[in-house]
Amino acid sequence: MPSTWEEFYAENPPPSDLDKNKQRVQEFCQKQLEHGSHIVLVTSGGTTVPLEHLTVRFVDNFSAGTRGASSAEYFLNSGYAVIFMHRIKSIEPFVRHVMGSKFLDMLQVSSSSNGSPTISVKPSEVDNLLPILSKYKAAQESQKLLQVGFTTLSDYLWLLRAICECLSAFGSRAMLYLAAAVSDFYVPAEQMPTHKIQSQDGVPTIHLELVPKILQPLVSLWVPSAYVVSFKLETDENILIKKARSALNTYKHKIVIGNLLQSRRNRVVFVTTHDESEARLTHSQEQQGLEIEELIVAHLKREHEKFISGTN
Ligand code: PMT
């Protein structure tokens, strides 16, 4: 029997940094309310499910956070204030363009006139780095981007609820873009061993419980006036639309974006109660560096505006 969402929160303690993050979110939201901004919560990356309290091992999923990080950039570009709620160490907006050795490869070391080493961007890389840096600096200066991190499923659910409490003040001007890959199974806190599972004790039996579907209280209680967008990931084309529609009927939110694991970078389907449409990138568009998230965000911005004005 899956626990209810109330039981989940009663049985799984909040993360130690919840109060600190709550305060950051409250201050950010207060500022955006004063400016009359539209706001979007982008959830991004996968949640972990720890197998021990002092966690050595955990169950994870495939999500790298690419969808969330690139969408956050396009939302900023479209004038939204963005709360980017992401798995710690997953892909982040702006930084994603210059990750790892790519960044170091953009730099060069030379000697200044007094002989001390100077580090600068290679002239050949300036045109690549400049637009990214300019957009990053603009987001910093406009104070329209707030990043908050989670790791475990429980961190994610606590943080999500805390952010929703702040977003409810925005009414229909808030959008929730739930792109994180949230685990459907977990080990309840009281069933988890404290210490590392020992191999000398033999093959462990790990019993996973079903995670309550958090979209239900989110849509009906926490942010009932907001424009809520959920994602549906499948691997079988034949059940994608059916599952997306079933989610809409169950949770009564505004739109489900269906995607297949295999083609998620170049094709998505927008499913609403009355409509179904597709966004697709051709091979040559992909080669030119176009991203499907640009099309997704443009579509959602239009739909959100119609929703706010009551013309949808
Ligand atoms: O990060 P990338 O590598 O770029 O990949 C992007 C993506 C494929 C992860 C993304 O596009 C996507 O599809 N995200 C949702 C995947 C997912 O978890 O689907 P789901 O069927 O488990 O959940 C559907 C919706 O229910 C989600 O919007 C989730 O927020 C919500 N949910 C999930 C579990 C749960 N217990 N409660 C929920 O409310």
Account of the protein in words:
Residues 166-285 form the DNA/pantothenate metabolism flavoprotein C-terminal domain. One of its GO terms (molecular function) is catalytic activity. One of its GO terms (biological process) is coenzyme A biosynthetic process. It holds the Pfam family DFP. The chain is of the alpha/beta class and 312 residues long. 38% of the residues lie in helices and 21% in strands. The protein is built from ten helices and 14 strands. The strands form four sheets. An eight-stranded mixed β-sheet has the order 7-4-1-8-11-12-13-14, with helices on both faces. The chain has a two-stranded antiparallel ribbon with strand order 2-3. A two-stranded antiparallel sheet has the order 5-6. Helix 2 runs parallel beside helix 6 and helix 3 (66-77) packs across helix 10 (292-309). The longest helix has 18 residues, at 18-35. The model has no long low-confidence stretch (mean pLDDT 96). Residues 63-67, 178-182, 184, 211, 213-215, 230-233, 259, 264 line the site of ligand PMT.
Summarize the structure.
This protein is an alpha/beta fold and 312 residues long.
Q: What's the layout of helices and strands?
A:
Elements: H1 5-11, H2 18-35, E1 39-44, E2 49-50, E3 58-59, H3 66-77, E4 81-87, H4 101-105, E5 107-111, E6 117-121, H5 126-142, E7 145-150, H6 153-167, E8 174-178, E9 185-186, E10 209-210, H7 215-222, E11 227-234, H8 237-251, E12 255-260, E13 267-271, E14 276-280, H9 283-287, H10 292-309
Parallel strand pairs: 1-4, 1-8, 4-7, 8-11, 11-12
Antiparallel strand pairs: 2-3, 5-6, 9-10, 12-13, 13-14
